[in-house]
Amino acid sequence: MTAICELDTPCVLVDLDRAESNLQRAQAFADKAGLKLRPHIKTHKLPRFAQRAIELGAVGITVQKLGEAEVMANAGISDMLLTFNIIGAAKLKRLRALHDRVTIRVVADSHECVAGLAAAFADASKPLGVFVECDTGMGRCGVQSPEAALDLARAIIAAPGLDLAGLMTYPAAGKYREAAEWLAAAKAMFEAAGIALPTITTGGTPDIWHADEAGVATEYRPGTYIYMDRSQVAAGAASFDDCALTVLATVVSHPTTGRAIVDAGSKALTSDLLGLVGHGYVVEYPDAKVVGLSEEHGTLDVSAYPDGGPKIGEQIRIIPNHCCPVTNLFDQVHLVRGGEVVETVPVAARGRVD
Amino acid sequence: MTAICELDTPCVLVDLDRAESNLQRAQAFADKAGLKLRPHIKTHKLPRFAQRAIELGAVGITVQKLGEAEVMANAGISDMLLTFNIIGAAKLKRLRALHDRVTIRVVADSHECVAGLAAAFADASKPLGVFVECDTGMGRCGVQSPEAALDLARAIIAAPGLDLAGLMTYPAAGKYREAAEWLAAAKAMFEAAGIALPTITTGGTPDIWHADEAGVATEYRPGTYIYMDRSQVAAGAASFDDCALTVLATVVSHPTTGRAIVDAGSKALTSDLLGLVGHGYVVEYPDAKVVGLSEEHGTLDVSAYPDGGPKIGEQIRIIPNHCCPVTNLFDQVHLVRGGEVVETVPVAARGRVD
User: Fold this and answer.
1) At what angle do helices B16-33 and B47-55 cross, to 10 degrees?
2) Residue B29: φ, ψ to 5°
3) Angle, vertex CA A326, rays to CA A12 and CA A204, nearest 5
4) What band does B295 get if pLDDT is binned at 50, 70 and 90?
5) Residues in chain A where the model's pLDDT stays below 70
6) Across the interface, which of B116, B296, B329 has its CB nearest the CB of A64?
7) Taking CA atoms, which of A167, B174, B234, B272 is between 20 and 30 Å from B188?
8) How far apart are CA B331 and CA B350, in angstroms?
9) Nearest 5°: phi and psi at A338?
């Protein structure tokens, strides 16, 4: 086995025990809350963790792009929700091909999107399940009102190749109460209209420990929870001890006592700030500040350490602000336990952007 | 040939005529200024453009990581400067292997770095050229004073396997005058000490059209200039009509008249702001603002367009804030001319982070 200290840097370490603990804790919480769990694979992009979550009780997975769905289908995952509007002939053809192999459901938030799906699945041997995406406060995709959700649901029901799967939302962080109210109002309206909603699905790791307050929702789709990161610690959803993903970096320069430079820049940590100040948390030097990133350089303010903190050649581990895009930057990640690399695996769904 | 409008999105388009024009203009400017040009390949990560720059008169290329150098060496590029401190046994071994095949020079800004290089190259059949990296205002790597540069140069000269190649700096954008003064002071000090400086190399696209004011510098290392981007337009180094790289995206949602969502998020455009507001420039809708990015969603404020601007299903092209990390996110780019794809090529040095 390779020791972590022998690895070339920068590279990504995934602590297997922490990841397993995070998976189990979320499944137990969902079970207690009476919610189905449908984890988003965008965080890890690895079939093994998708499969492990399902072994632990998840009903399937969530994916964000067709390319991710294709990778997971090839790895044997048979039940997935694609939470992205599928638009255009090329993508509809790929969706149809997937639908012939696995159970895949999608979302829609416009009549244009529903019309495209309807045309592509009119002659399908089994209907495609379609959720109405609802904008419950995120200000991204989604119909703007329960009335609009009902209107779009009628269009889905009217399309021969489509089935209404339910309602889907991605709530803004911290706005789970607003989301619950929105969905409750929509559900009441659908009931009054005599239209069944098989599933009402919501998500988000920042509010995962409030999933039991998700009201009428029947399913939860967390992603980041498996690895956690600095933004989730800031949101109160995790502690640094829960964080399973770190970027291993080496100090390559120490131009002044107060400044150290590591070989992990935005090509390793991404520029995602998510409202935070600084670009990560240094495990071994918690008072160091990652004050700047170039593509290949990370600039650390180590002035809190009178002796300059880490020395040239020293390895440090950085918990990134946002772990999901970090896994998208690396061809492989090292699965570790203690100080040892257990296995090095390709990030199967990395770069699947379409 | 494939028409651009047939491409699946998001994807990267590189306008061949604009890239060629940018290469030629910079070479002509450097020639007139009496400077050698050593373009940085981090922007395109493609052997073909490295080779084309050399055909046009560049003396070689610049790379930032060993992985990039290995890709370029494998593609037949034989002269490169690696502007990153090489630290640690694993990387020194890779550097030595490259040095056996091609002309590669490196930088150092500490006695620790020089000692590592000296130990690894003590028995090399030809010496390794090493530049002293100088911090002329960037506040990243580099020795902090001309005196420190001279001190480190003496250590390089004293090491049997190393040759002093000269001085290297990456100036902060807009601080080319400060950099020129710093380097002039250093050169005078080296002359007084009787130490020759074969090359003094500086760089940066933001100030490329001030390269003729680089003083004692003999070589210039621009990177972004081949594609240009929104940050270079903001810096006054380019116009939007010079920008060769665009991200082709599709409108997938239009939840309100003033808001459109495209399928290019931070996994396509990166979160790099570089001091700018917003995440890109929409070629077809210049008054649209890219106000937010999730990993797979880009949120456009199109309220400047009373009819909502682009429709669902419409393709738009976005000039990113920073083109270099964008090419790092895509396995391939489409080389285009007019409305046609001339060739689709793998991004050979993508993800070479170590």
Assistant:
1) 40
2) -65, -45
3) 120
4) very high
5) none
6) B296
7) B174
8) 7
9) 60, -135
User: Which strand ranges, in their side-by-side order, compose the sheet holding B128-133?
Assistant: B36-37, B219-221, B199-203, B162-168, B128-133, B103-108, B79-82, B61-63
CB-CB contact of B7 with B334 (8 Å): yes
- Give alpha helix (H) positions in chain B: 16-33, 47-55, 66-74, 89-99, 111-121, 146-158, 176-192, 230-234, 266-269, 323-327
Domain-ending residue, one of A171, A192, A226 = A226
Select from A13, A45, A71, A263 the residue whose CB has the most chain B CBs within 10 Å, as the one to mutate to test that interface.
Answer: A263
Question: Are B253 and A109 in contact (CB < 8 Å)?
Answer: yes
User: CB neighbours of A19 closer than 8 A, spacing ≥ 6?
Assistant: A44, A49, A226, A227, A244
Domain end: A206, A226, A246, which one? A226
Chain B: give the shortest CA distance to residue A32, in Å.
Answer: 31
Please tell me the predicted confidence (pLDDT) of residue B216: 98
Residue B262 lies in a domain: yes
Token reading at A260: 């150290």
Contact flag B90-A266 (C-beta cutoff 8 Å):
no
The mean pLDDT value of chain B amounts to: 98
Average pLDDT over residues B168-190: 97
- The whole-number pLDDT of residue A142 equals 98
Whichever domain contains B301, its CATH number is: 2.40.37.20
Please report residues of B whose CB lies closer than 8 A to that of A295. Answer: 42, 64, 324-325, 328
Please tell me whether residues A7 and A149 are part of one structural domain: no
| Domain identity same for A49 and A147 | yes
On whether both B216 and B107 belong to a single domain, the answer is yes
Q: Which domain holds residue B29?
A: 16-227
Provide the whole-model pTM: 0.98
Helices then strands, counting H and E runs in chain B, come out as: 10, 18
User: Are B213 and B220 within 8 A, CB to CB?
Assistant: no
CA angle A71, A23, A167 (to 5 degrees): 65
Q: What is the pLDDT of residue A6?
A: 94
pLDDT at B10 over 90: yes
- Same domain for A262 and A213, yes or no, is no
Q: Given this model, what pLDDT does residue B204 score?
A: 97
Which secondary-structure segment (H or E) carries A149? helix A146-158
CATH number of the domain enclosing B142? 3.20.20.10
Residues B51 and B197 in one domain: yes
Number of domains comprising chain B: 2
Please state whether beta strands A61-63 and A245-256 pair in parallel, antiparallel, or not at all (unpaired). Answer: unpaired
The identity of residue B208, as a single letter, is: I
Find the mean pLDDT for residues B63-84.
98
